[in-house]
Amino acid sequence: MELKEQIEAILPLVQKPARYTGGELNSVVKNKDGVDLRFAFCFPDTYEIGMSHLGIKILYSLINSRPNYWCERVFAPSEDMETLMRDRGIPLYGLESRDALADFDVVGFTLQYELCYTNVLNMLDLAHLPLRSRDRGDTLDVPIVVGGGPCVCNPEPLADFFDCFQIGEGEEVMLEFLDLLNDYKKQGKSRSEFLHAVSHIEGIYVPSLYEATYHDDGTIAAFTPIGDAPAVINKRVVADLDKVFYPESFVVPFVEIVHDRVVHEIFRGCIRGCRFCQAGFWYRPVREKSVETISRQSKRLACTTGYDELSLCSLSSSDYTKITDLLEELLDWTQPEKINIALPSLRIDNFSDELKDKLALVRRSGLTFAAEAGTQRLRDVINKNITEEEILGTCRRAFSGGWTAVKLYFMIGLPTETDDDVVGINALSQKVVDEFYHNPDRQKGRAVSVAAGVSSFVPKPCTPFQWEPQDSLEELTRKQQLLKETCTSKKITFRFHNTDMTYLEGVFARGDRKLCDVLETAWRSGCKFDSWDDHYRKDLWQAAFAACGVDPDFYGCRRRSYDEILPWDHINSGIRKEFLKQESEKAKQGLTTPHCRVHCAGCGANKLNGGNCDALRASSVCKD
User: Fold this and answer.
1) What is the full DSSP assignment across 199-255?
2) 318 pLDDT band (50/70/90 cuts)?
């Protein structure tokens, strides 16, 4: 029985078979005999989550825009589908062709979250591909396994499983990578020859071309390139978002996905400099799209997909310099078409009356604001640069505008945090509740609800807190209990993150190559879908660390010194290490740094973009 027939036979036996069929509106099917390269774009989670991700939409369309390349989508199958596939020997396949991944030239994974790493190994195994790069031979007949996404700011815990990584933004480096592979395959070159050559494309990291040595205490003694591999890998940055490729259509799923709407990116980077936020530093420098480009591209996407909601995507949407002009432009065509505009990631300190009035013209939904900490002292430590009055004033304007539901995001376990800071989360949430009932312009006859999402702080690479210890599991659990015990209002509801999962995230976020063995051991014992509460197995992870002789606290709960070689020091994010040290010291003193449009702090990120940063246009002084 052919593979396609085997797949057809099992689809009626699984829940949500539409996850595995392909054939959706705007999916791309090509003649495989008429293309030079085939790319399997793998998302290491379920279809509903992966199909919501903007990156896969962009790169899927980008690769398929080249007539001689064909990109297909691959998602992690759920347990029922995986069981049938393994029982019947069905390999993991591309949705568009239903061909096995071994038939592809490239297997690419987007790495969005550390707790998806076991799914990467599981998908490689389901594809009948060797897990370790060293076991794939020296020909290009076996697919090149490449990784990208935000987690590659520290790719070392996955170094043994990937042939290479694309560091930074993929729209330009992806085609350079594929063009070189196409040339080398046509010339009959070896795998090692290709990997050596591709390591000289800016933004490509080939881990097998580097050797790590260690001190007796487990810290890194040296990280040495082999041969002429570059000592430092520079992150790739797209210079002009108005000119870079953006899709004219998205694949429209048959089943409901997490974010079932048109998503449009309005700018990259962040001006704020919150010291805990990896994305805020990793995606610098700031680059904005023009109002005209956003409107034109969004209208085209709405037309080709039929969606009735448009979400404006960025790290801080209200920091877009022409946000009011943009909403006016979009409302001109979305209102007649009854298309809702969603504006996530709003900043508390620039939720103006003008913005409130514009948002009042779109479909009403809850508002979400990130306060991050319950006290002003701790907000200064993390450089949040918002005051309690700004928080309450923003909620006051929202309540006057008709909103009755507010979500507040907080973190526990932040550097220098005390119990007073933890209890301050309750106090601030209660003040927001009181603000509603003290507001004469509130909606009468309606009750307020304040949902407080409380996550646990994870120190991440490329941030000023990359040297900080993570709170222990016991301490995080204690702080969660303290919050519950000190909350007296039924108007406030808490949602906590799983502390065990947060702890594991922190271990892999700052880990090194010694975690590769732990990862494979955990996967072989049954770990997968670790980001899902009902799949996470703490006991299996503990056993894996013990079996490999690795202490997870070494990566999670240990403070690093400034002179220690970090596993990601060879990856240049563009942010100067000296700048991160300065911010770390200011945090210890409770000193803030103004955001980039007030004063350029000289982070250095614009150097990877020829000295250009859109935030500098309004900055009074540029240090770079």
Assistant:
1) TTSTTEE-GGGEEEEE-TTSSEEEEEE-TT--SSEEPB--S-TTTS---S---B-SS
2) confident
Spell 336-356 as b/e; 16+ CB within 10 A means b.
Answer: eeebbbbbebbbbbebeeebb
Collect all residues with Cβ–Cβ distance below 8 Å to 198 and sequence separation of at least 6.
Answer: 164, 177, 180, 181, 204, 206
Q: How far apart are CA 134 and CA 513, in angstroms?
A: 14
Cβ neighbors of 511 (< 8 A, separation 6 or more) are 154, 156, 157, 555, 567
- Measured between alpha carbons, how far is 133 from 164 in angstroms, rounded to an integer? 9
The CATH number covering residue 615 comes to 3.30.750.210
Per residue in 78-128, pLDDT tens? 999 999 999 999 999 999 999 999 999 999 999 999 999 999 999 999 999
Strand pairing partners for 342? Answer: 311
Measured CA to CA, the distance from residue 261 to residue 51 in angstroms comes to 11
Distance between CA atoms of residues 64 and 590, nearest Å: 50
Residues 478, 572: contact at Cβ < 8 Å? no
Helix (H) or strand (E) holding 311: strand 309-313
pLDDT tens string 387-435: 999 999 988 888 888 888 889 999 999 999 999 999 999 999 999 999 9
- Is 104 in the same domain as 198? yes
Q: How many domains does the chain have?
A: 3
The conformational region for residue 109 under phi > 0 = left, psi -120 to 50 = alpha, else beta, is: beta
The pTM of the whole model exceeds 0.90: yes
The chain-wide mean pLDDT, for the chain, equals 94
Task: Provide the total of helices (H) and of strands (E) in the chain, helices listed first.
Answer: 20, 19
**What is the dihedral sign for C-alpha 579, 585, 586, 588?**
positive
Pairwise pLDDT comparison (198 vs 340), residue with the higher score: 198
State yes or no: pLDDT of 588 exceeds 50.
yes
8 and 49 housed in the same domain: yes
Instruction: Convert the pLDDT of each residue in 523-550 to its tens digit.
Output: 999 999 999 999 999 999 999 999 999 9
133 and 160 part of one domain: yes
Structural domain span for residue 343: 261-359+594-624
Query: Does pLDDT of 496 surpass 70?
Result: yes
Answer yes or no: is 304 within a domain: yes
* β-pair partners for 409: 370, 453
Strand partners, 264: 312
Tokens representing 30? 């090509």
Q: In the β-sheet with 309-313, what is the strand arrangement from edge to edge?
A: 262-265, 309-313, 340-342
**What's the 3-state SS for 439-469?**
CCCCCCCCCCEEEEEEEECCCCCCCCCCCCC
Q: Residue 375's beta-bridge partner residues? A: none
Q: Are residues 214 and 155 in the same domain?
A: yes
| Residues 197 and 323 reside in one and the same domain | no
At 366, the pLDDT band (50, 70, 90 cuts) reads: low
Report pLDDT digits (tens) over 243-257. Answer: 999 999 999 999 999
Cβ(458)–Cβ(470) below 8 Å: yes
